[in-house]
Design brief:
Structural class: alpha+beta
Distance between the termini: 51 Å
Number of domains: 2
Oligomer: single chain
Number of strands: 9
Helix content: 55-70%
Shape: globular
Length: 496
């Protein structure tokens, strides 16, 4: 295996907040699935749990694998990431029929006081039916897909890690809504006849084909970021764009057309259709039993007996919510090395160098810079180069410069070498980079503008979000208990 390919395969980045959220979701689902299965209720087949965990794992791979690390370098990697977020993870998650197991897996206080009433709320049910209606889901996914592939928004996502996460969330959530009518996870009800999903999928395939054809047949590079990025492999930015469009075309058509064919065959077979109807009727007949099992059928009754009182359940939920929320807020507030963009490129007699740094303003404090070095003539990746960063504040020649040796270990992208430097004051700085490979030596210099962080930066939005969520839950709890019990919704009775 070549060193470059090995470096690519080892370039994994672990999104701590997303990993924490996905692991927590998987634990809640598996707990609910196990409790329902132990209660002796049907419909909790092992393959459903395996499908849900497979979907969660696919979502994590899309966010943590080299597809994410190299999406700013190679358009093809970015397209594979989008395909995973939109066409692999959502249907697998929905095949696991997650609604009831997730509610069942929550702490009993949370399920009784928040999840159950929310699912019974008339407004929530109306909004939910609108969101999963085929027409709305089809139009929404198409609009989101085309909007994020316009050059302006796509470039925004590449230049900002925060907007990049918003893009991923839009793709995943709209795709989850799109695949809902196709999979129709229990206990939801179909709003269209089954045969109508054949044109539904074919229209989605037409949208996908139109967008991919634009990428394949465009006579120019649509996204300047890929035109400016160093070429990691032996193909141009135009060829990379065409390859990404071809992947979208072929994979997308298969993902949309194959289910359409399966549904068409099912609809043409009277026996299969009647069996599906009977199976759905059987599923509905056990819905009440499954929902009512939330308050019973617990294993580990020794511990359950000590958590029967509302006070104990409330205290347990408060502790779990506080610990989980604070941990999640901390992970969201932690700085990320993903938010690095190409800041400058330079050439010398021997090397072609690209320097990556934080997007936007550079603030006082610890800052990471990364560098990719290629042979100027052959464009070969020089992974074993020795790279030293030196930062000198302009106009203070007598002050000692800040120096650091770059290395691959501090970089998530193993083709780059990274180093963290401490910027002590605002003002004009000069970044000097010394590169040595074998007998060849070169020096590069770039000006930097360092600014003081704004006062609002000290207050992390994630902690504010946690505080707001806590206040909202507290208000909901007190509001519900001001209402006479006869007006309370029946626990977990839902027709979503």
């Amino acid at each position: 295996m070549s060193p470059v390919l090995s470096a690519v395969l080892h370039s994994w980045t672990i999104p701590h907040a997303a990993t924490f959220a996905l692991v927590l979701t998987a634990i809640i689902y598996l707990r609910g699935w196990w409790l329902l299965r132990c209660s002796g209720l049907p419909l909790q087949a092992p393959w459903k749990a395996a499908s849900f965990i497979g979907g969660v794992l696919a979502l994590w791979v899309a966010l943590a694998s080299p597809m994410d690390v190299f999406n700013g370098f190679v358009f093809t990697a970015h397209m594979l990431q989008h395909m995973t977020l939109m066409m692999v993870a959502p249907p697998l998650i929905l095949l696991g029929e997650p609604l009831i197991p997730i509610v069942r897996g929550l702490p009993r206080f949370a399920a009784r006081e928040f999840a159950g009433p929310f699912l019974n709320w008339t407004l929530a049910q109306r909004v939910g039916r609108t969101l999963i209606s085929p027409l709305f889901a089809l139009v929404l996914m198409g609009l989101v897909n085309f909007a994020w592939h316009t050059p302006r928004l796509y470039q925004l996502a590449l230049d900002s890690d925060s907007w990049h996460q918003v893009e991923h969330a839009c793709f995943f959530l709209t795709s989850l809504l799109f695949w809902w009518p196709v999979v129709q996870p229990w206990p939801s009800k179909s709003q269209w006849p089954r045969w109508a999903l054949v044109p539904y999928l074919l229209v989605a395939d037409l949208q996908n084909t139109t967008l991919s054809a634009i990428l394949v047949f465009s006579d120019r590079v649509l996204y300047p970021r890929y035109l400016d990025a160093p070429r990691l492999f032996d193909f141009s930015a135009q060829q990379d764009q065409a390859a990404a469009g071809a992947i979208m075309w072929v994979v997308g058509s298969l993902v949309f057309v194959v289910p359409a064919v399966i549904i068409a065959v099912q609809c043409l077979s009277r026996r299969t259709t009647m069996a599906a109807v009977n199976s759905r009727a059987t599923d509905d007949s056990v819905a009440a039993r499954m929902l009512s099992s939330v308050e019973s059928g617990l294993p580990f009754r020794f511990f359950a007996a000590r958590l029967q009182s509302r006070t104990a359940q409330a205290m347990t939920f408060t502790f779990l919510f506080g610990a989980t929320g604070l941990c999640f807020a901390y992970l969201l507030a932690a700085p990320s090395d993903d938010d690095q963009i190409l800041r400058s490129r330079g050439q010398s007699d021997h090397f072609d160098a690209a320097v990556y740094g934080p997007g936007g303003d550079i603030h006082i404090g610890s800052t990471a810079f990364s560098m990719l070095v290629q042979d100027r003539t052959t464009k070969e990746m020089l992974l074993d180069s020795k790279i030293d960063f030196e930062l000198q504040k302009t106009g203070t020649g007598e002050a000692s410069p800040v120096k650091v040796r770059a290395n691959h270990e501090d970089s998530e992208n193993k083709l780059l070498q990274s180093g963290k430097v401490e910027l002590s004051a605002a003002g004009d700085w000069t970044l000097n980079v010394f590169v040595q490979h074998d007998a060849a030596r070169s020096e590069f210099s770039w000006p930097l503008q360092v600014v003081k962080p704004q006062s609002g930066d000290a207050v992390r939005w994630s902690y504010m979000g946690f505080a707001a969520a806590s206040v909202i839950l507290l208000m909901i709890y007190f509001w519900r208990h001001r209402v006479p019990p006869k007006y309370h919704p029946e626990y977990l009775k839902t027709s979503v």
